[in-house]
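Incident log, support desk, overnight shift.

02:14 A customer reports that sequence design results differ from what the structure should imply. Their input is reproduced verbatim below. On-call engineer (initials T.W.) acknowledged and began investigating.
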């Protein structure tokens, strides 16, 4: 600390919630961490779709993004669980299967690229917790927060735990500790580690099923009196935020961890993009 990482934006944040991108950039800048631009990056690609149809296509598309970061000599950092899951697992395959790496590089060679398997895939929350640390983060908190919040881990952050080894997959605490650095109180609620409803293509294939899952999560969050939902994934963010316009009785702001840190660090609200949310932040 400070460090340097290639920032992988993914699809949802820059196109649907640009405040997540802006908040991330400003928070890491405040802490003196350099985020390198990943020029020419494409979709991660989405783990619940591309990989299900053709593994080599999934691996090649992921490897192209990894090669861009490798060329700059820095690890790649995501702000999205789905991107983290796809890139991390693809990287794991390529670093442990020389034949797959060879096949993928034959594909990449057609566009003048090659991946050597020399970088790591990091999630921004993991970087915050392991590389920067909660004690250091506390030093940047200028505006301690007094909220009861419900933390949503999502499906692709700590799982598959057999290769990620970030936290206890059944009783994780990493995000709760990162949230409480700001002064906010992370409250437990029923089915805390259950999917938001959108993952695995469910939102696209069966929006009704996705909505029912989201409604169940929102009921559990509301029952414990949480004032907002804190996520670390723009797709989970979208599902919780946009679904509430179709679900009467809910008005729970959804805030990405970077935005929460922006508030705690005293950054101007206009840099956090909260006005772009369906459920407006009124607290």
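02:41 Re-run completed on a clean worker. Output:
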């Amino acid at each position: 600390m400070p460090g340097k990482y290639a920032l992988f934006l993914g699809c949802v944040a820059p196109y649907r919630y640009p405040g997540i991108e802006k908040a991330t950039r400003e928070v890491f800048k405040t802490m003196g961490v350099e985020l390198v631009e990943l020029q020419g990056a494409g979709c991660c690609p989405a783990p619940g779709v591309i990989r299900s149809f053709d593994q080599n296509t999934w691996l090649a598309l992921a490897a192209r993004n990894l090669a861009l970061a490798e060329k700059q000599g820095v690890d790649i950092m995501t702000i999205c669980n789905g991107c983290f899951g796809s890139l991390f697992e693809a990287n794991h395959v390529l670093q442990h299967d020389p034949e797959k790496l060879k096949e993928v590089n034959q594909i990449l060679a057609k566009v003048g690229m090659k991946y050597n398997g020399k970088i790591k895939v990091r999630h921004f929350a993991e970087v915050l917790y392991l590389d920067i640390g909660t004690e250091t983060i506390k030093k940047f908190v200028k505006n301690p927060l007094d909220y009861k919040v419900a933390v949503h881990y999502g499906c692709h952050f700590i799982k598959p735990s057999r290769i990620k080894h970030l936290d206890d997959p059944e009783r994780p605490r990493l995000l709760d500790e990162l949230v409480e650095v700001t002064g906010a109180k992370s409250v437990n609620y029923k089915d805390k580690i259950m999917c938001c409803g959108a993952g695995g293509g469910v939102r696209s294939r069966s929006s009704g099923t996705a909505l029912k899952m989201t409604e169940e999560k929102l009921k559990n969050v509301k029952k414990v009196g949480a004032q907002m939902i804190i996520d670390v994934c723009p797709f989970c963010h979208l599902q919780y935020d946009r679904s509430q316009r179709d679900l009467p009785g809910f008005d729970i702001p959804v805030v990405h961890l970077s935005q929460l840190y922006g508030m705690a660090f005293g950054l101007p609200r206009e840099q956090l993009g909260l006005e772009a949310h369906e459920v407006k932040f009124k607290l």
